[in-house]
Every structure is written in structure tokens, then in C-alpha cells.
Design brief:
There is one protein chain. With about 325 residues, this protein is an alpha+beta fold. The protein contains eleven helices and eleven strands. The strands form three sheets. Strands 1-4-5-6-7 form a five-stranded antiparallel sheet. It has a four-stranded antiparallel sheet with strand order 8-9-10-11. It has a two-stranded antiparallel ribbon with strand order 2-3. Helix 1 runs antiparallel to helix 2, helix 2 packs across helix 3 and helix 10 packs across helix 11.
Length: about 325
């Protein structure tokens, strides 16, 4: 793995003057050093782009820098023009309405999927890495990068890049499904998708207490006074001797029982309300073969930078 900005450290076999100055000055802070690296890289990358000498990795570097500061106009200049915007309404399931897209990159949602739109705005540039570069065809390339969001979530992004005349342009960016380990507790590095998978896994094992560790957004008091949607999660906090109450709830609200008696599930549409809130549709099949639609609402606003389940709406 190569740090995304390692090329700044050496020009023609010599240290960049900016880095030499930063290294020789004992009073220079690490933040000013990083800022200097970014300025040097921005200069060389922009020059390459103007001269038509920028390769796929140069374009990806420039895009990450633009999105670090939410420079949407600069980002649009790096995208293949015919895919630069999307005026179509957000997709909605035919069974359950999951919300409207928002966030910094909503105008570019035809190019960036939900996962990449979570990670890239105000990303932690110093943790960015180029993992691999794959040439698919003569004028098509795929660049994989490791990105950390400003809140700490980590993920691998796949950048599909095509040659447009003398310049490489970005066509599509998506978060790679790496099959990450399921979390047992909340942590900033975990994606919301992994939190949902872990919750479903614990519920299938009937370990409601462990499942509740991933649902800090729903207070225990909602068991008695919250909306129906909150009960299935809140009741999972009950001790084993109280689980008869849980069974009673599922008898009354049959659609929620599929979460316990699930045989399989498939992720459906997802909506990024903003960088701190999203909704993920999950289609669950119970042991009798009936399919149920669930909309998981997650946020990180109240959870110390960790994605947590706030609500589950069933249909």
C-alpha cells in the first residue's frame, strides 16, 4: 500500500523544498507540514492536468483533495461531462419509502454511490492510500484507494476512470464490499452496513442484549412510550427472564418477527440524508418464505462518531 501523497516527498530524487523547510524547522507543526505537502501536490497535479500529462492516479489524487475541502466545482471538472450530474429523483422501493438524498455530494450522486459520498467530504487526507491500479482496457482504468472519513469510518473506494481525449476523467466511484468483520460494539471505523449486518446476526442468534449494543440511538424508555417502530429494538434490551414480553410484542406485530426468524436478507436501496444520517433498506425472508421490507435509520450525531441504529421501520 502506497500513501496517496507519498509522491510529494521526492522530486527528481530530491526532497521537496517545502518538506525540507518543514523538517528543518523544529517549531513547525505537523498540520503545517501536511498543508505544505498538499500545496506541492496540488501544484504538480494541476500542472499535469493542464498539460494533459495527468494519469489515472493523478486524477484520483486531485479528486480526493477537492473533496477534502468540498470543492464541488473543482470535482465536476474531473468527471466525464455526460455523467457529471443527476437530476432524476432518488430511487424508492415499491414497498417502502426510505427518504430523500442529501449531503455535500448529492448533485453528483450519479457518479458517487452512498458509501463514497459518506467517506469523501472533508476526508482525512493523511490516511489516504492508493492500494492498486488496474488497466481494464486501453482507455479504461480502475484505481482502488483506502479512505477515512472525517469521523473515522474506513473504507475502500473503487474509482472507474476513462480517457477522454488527452485527459483521464472519473466515471464512477463506489465503496467496495470488503466483507469486513462484524462489530460486537460501536466504533468509528465500522460502516453502517456492517452495523446492520451485525445486528441482524445477533437477533438471529436470539442474543438481544448484544444486539442492543448496536442501537444506542434508541433509549430504553421507548419500550413503554416510544413509537411502534422503536419497540423491536428497545425490547431487545430485556433480560432473559423478561423475553416473554418480547414474544408477546412480536405476536402483536408479526412483521418484526422476521428479524428474529430470518432465513436470509438482501440489502436494497440506500439514502444518505446527510453525512451524519442515512437510511438503508433491507429485504428479509423469514423461515416461511415471506419477504419483509425493513428501513434501518442510522446516525452518528449522538454516538461519539460511531454509526448506530436509531430506528427500524417495517412493511
Amino acid at each position: 500500500m502506497v500513501p496517496l501523497w507519498s509522491s510529494s516527498m521526492c522530486r527528481n530524487g530530491r526532497l521537496s523544498p517545502v518538506l525540507c523547510h518543514a523538517s528543518s524547522s523544529a517549531s513547525s507543526s505537523s498540520s503545517s507540514c501536511v498543508s505544505s505537502i498538499r500545496r506541492v501536490d496540488a501544484y504538480y497535479n494541476n500542472k499535469k492536468i493542464v498539460d494533459g500529462r495527468a494519469g489515472p492516479v493523478d486524477i484520483v489524487k486531485e479528486a480526493v483533495v477537492c473533496l477534502r475541502s468540498s470543492d464541488i466545482q473543482g470535482m465536476e471538472s474531473l468527471i466525464l461531462s455526460e455523467d457529471a450530474s443527476d437530476s432524476s429523483p432518488c430511487r424508492r422501493s415499491d414497498r417502502i419509502r426510505i427518504g430523500e438524498d442529501g449531503g455535500v455530494l448529492v448533485s453528483l450522486k450519479s457518479v458517487f454511490d452512498v458509501g463514497s459520498r459518506r467517506l469523501l467530504p472533508f476526508n482525512l487526507l493523511r490516511r489516504s492510500q492508493v492500494l492498486s491500479v488496474l488497466s481494464l482496457e486501453r482507455d479504461t482504468c480502475q484505481v482502488r484507494t483506502k479512505i477515512s472519513s472525517k469521523y473515522g469510518e474506513e473504507g475502500i473506494l473503487v474509482w472507474n476512470v476513462e480517457r477522454d481525449g488527452n485527459t483521464w476523467r472519473i466515471v464512477r466511484v463506489s465503496r467496495e464490499d470488503t466483507g469486513e468483520c462484524l462489530p460486537t460494539t460501536l466504533h468509528p471505523v465500522h460502516s453502517p452496513e456492517s452495523v446492520i449486518r451485525a445486528y441482524l446476526d445477533w437477533m438471529k442468534k436470539k442474543d438481544y442484549v448484544q444486539a442492543h449494543q448496536l442501537c444506542e440511538g434508541i433509549p430504553f424508555a421507548s419500550m413503554m412510550m416510544g413509537p411502534v417502530q422503536s419497540h423491536a429494538v428497545a425490547l431487545s434490551f430485556l433480560e432473559p427472564e423478561q423475553r416473554a414480553l418480547l414474544d408477546s410484542f412480536f405476536d402483536e406485530h408479526e412483521s418484526y418477527r422476521c428479524i428474529m426468524d430470518q432465513k436470509e436478507y438482501v440489502f436494497g436501496d440506500a439514502v444518505l440524508i446527510d453525512e451524519q444520517c442515512m437510511v438503508q433498506e433491507v429485504v428479509v425472508r423469514d423461515r416461511e418464505g415471506t419477504w419483509w421490507h425493513a428501513a434501518f435509520e442510522l446516525s452518528i450525531k449522538q454516538h461519539h462518531g460511531c454509526w448506530s441504529i436509531d430506528d427500524i421501520r417495517m412493511h
